[in-house]
Write a structure and sequence with these properties.
Layout lengths: L6 E6 L2 E6 H7 L4 H18 L5 E2 L3 E5 L4 H11 L7 E3 L10 E2 L2 E2 L2 E5 L2 E7 L6 H10 L7 H17 L2 H4 E6 L9
Parallel strand pairs: 1-3, 4-5
Antiparallel strand pairs: 1-2, 4-8, 6-7, 8-9, 9-10
Length: 182
């Protein structure tokens, strides 16, 4: 990828709002991995859901298989869906090949108008090493945490520089049942 920051554009009424990973980090500063993943997930999702024009931010609906605070913060900044009740946190959401998190799976269902798209990162990105680092260090401030912060920075770089086909998997959802099965 080139040096130009990746961005997404959403429309709020009549104004287009362009956001980068750095913008997401201003809202959730310690969540560098979540901000990186969300800019990549939404960039692909919005391109597929509305290839001709920016998505209307207040017409986006979400189901998250991993309800981590960093991801929720990003969804809120991008679409206001958390406070407006358009974001369902569903840790029991399942998708073959979707990597496990500590509290669910990295699965993102994004709805726009009548279309729903499911995206998930490659399991090689969020592997056992990732889960070890997060479970060991995310809530600790003890000496040694610097290594964890360096790991997070490297993981964020990996997410930002991977091509879409390496990083993300996706499929259209044909129908959304109340219990989340497809």
């Amino acid at each position: 990828m080139d040096a130009t920051p990746l961005s997404i554009t959403v429309r709020d009424l009549t104004v287009d709002v362009t956001l980068t990973r750095d913008d997401l980090l201003k809202y959730t500063p310690s969540n560098v991995i979540a901000a990186s993943l969300m800019i990549r997930v939404t960039r692909l999702a919005f391109t597929l859901l509305s290839p001709e024009q920016p998505v209307m931010r207040r017409q986006l609906y979400w189901r998250l298989g991993y309800p981590g605070p960093g991801l929720l913060d990003c969804v809120e900044l991008i679409s206001h869906a958390v406070r407006e009740g358009r974001c369902l946190q569903q840790p029991d959401l399942q998708q073959e090949g979707a990597p496990a998190s500590l509290k669910g799976h990295f699965i993102f269902d994004v709805g726009y108008h009548t279309r729903w798209l499911r995206l998930w990162p490659s399991a090689s990105v969020f592997d056992d090493t990732f889960r070890y680092w997060v479970s060991t260090w995310e809530s600790r401030t003890t000496p040694g945490r610097e290594s964890y912060l360096a790991y997070k920075a490297q993981k964020a770089h990996e997410i930002m520089t991977a091509d879409d086909a390496t990083l993300l998997r996706w499929r259209w959802l044909t129908r959304m049942d109340a219990d989340g099965t497809v």
